[in-house]
Amino acid sequence: VVLTLGGGPKNATLEVAIYEALRIEADFGRAAALAALQFVLCLGLTGLLAFFNHRPAEAAGGTRPMIRPDSAARGLKAFDGAAILLGTALIAPPLLAVLAGLPALPRLATAEVLEAALTSAALALAAGLIAVTLALALASPVPGKANDWHGKAMDLAALAMLGLPPFAFVTGLYVL
To answer: Among 89, 95, 116, 146, which one is most buried in terms of CB atoms within 10 A?
Structure first.
């Protein structure tokens, strides 16, 4: 989508220029410079927006419960149920196909596969713990302080990842 809508080499967006620098030219230095430029631009615009944006204190993780105004509407409950059933219908076949392959699992239990599985599980556990810790830190600023510098810094930290070009980030992780 980014390549299709982002233009060609003469009029490329930053995202397309980063992609071309990595994929076509293999110029990691140029890609890193462009990614840093995109990150600084996005962070600056987000910081400017946070400076002018004043939100109510309860939006920062208030203590009162939120009551949905549509909780009694039967039509919306039916729509929610239909959406859940549709999602289940889309996800169930691949899961059932995996379950059908379970009898072949003992043949895959070689030392290399077990080592890879343990490594994957350890990385997933570490990534999950880091994600949950950061999410809890971002979701629990001090109530009533949403418009002070601490609340704005927390909002900016939550939005900072949106400015990081994903292709450059993944390539950097691959190189590491």
So the answer is: 146
86 by Cβ neighbours in 10 Å (0-12 / 13-18 / 19+) ranks as exposed
Whether pTM > 0.90 for this model: the answer is: no
Distance of CA 31 to the CA centre of its chain: 21
- Say if CB 151 and CB 60 are below 8 A apart: yes
Angle at 36 between CA 24 and CA 52, to 5 degrees: 135
- Please report, for residues 63, 101, 112, 156, 159, the alpha-carbon distance to residue 162 in angstroms, rounded to integers and kept in the order given: 28, 38, 37, 10, 6
Place of tokens 């979701």: 139
Q: Alpha-carbon distance 6 to 163, whole Å?
A: 16
Instruction: Kindly state the tokens that stand for 174.
Output: 């691959």
